[in-house]
Amino acid sequence: MPLDIYRRIEKAGVMPNVGLIDNTCAALLPFPTVKAELLLRERHQLDSKSFVEIRVWRVPRSVRESGHEFKYSLAYVVEGECVLRYDNEAGKGDHIHWADEDRSYNFTTPEQLLADFWSDVDTWRSK
Mean pLDDT per 10-residue run, the chain (127 residues)? Predict the structure, then answer.
């Protein structure tokens, strides 16, 4: 965002909503920043070489290309490399990164998201 626009927004008493969820600037029209509500943040060390990190937020507006009120990132990391990740990145919608492959994900509920993720972690670990 150009510095002069940022200064005008700041002077008006409104902070830009940049980087809270998807790094897009929603502050071109003045409105108060509404932050996401963190619902879940967990890290599980599965063994000496792998861990899972789970983050789920409730957002005031759905992330671009997702039709629900949640932003999430669930990652399974092995020896420092993220080998499985569920997320709903802005512009890509709900999807899964499985090694080097991306595929769409049909989000229904946060509970089902967690169940699907842990099922895939179990599948990966049994390889």
Answer: 44 43 42 75 96 94 87 96 92 91 94 97 94
Range of the domain at 117: 37-125
- Which helix (H) or strand (E) segment holds residue 111: the answer is helix 110-125
Q: Are residues 115 and 74 part of one domain?
A: yes
Biggest alpha carbon distance in the chain?
56
Q: Residue 100 has what pLDDT?
A: 87
Beta-strand relationship, 81-87 and 95-98: antiparallel
Look-up of token digits 């998201």: 113
Distance between the two ends of the chain, CA-based, in angstroms? Answer: 46
Q: How far is CA 85 from CA 73, 77, 99, in A?
A: 7, 9, 9
Q: Are residues 8 and 23 in the same domain?
A: yes
pTM attached to this predicted model: 0.71
- In angstroms, the CA 88 to CA 21 distance is 10
pLDDT of residue 61: 85
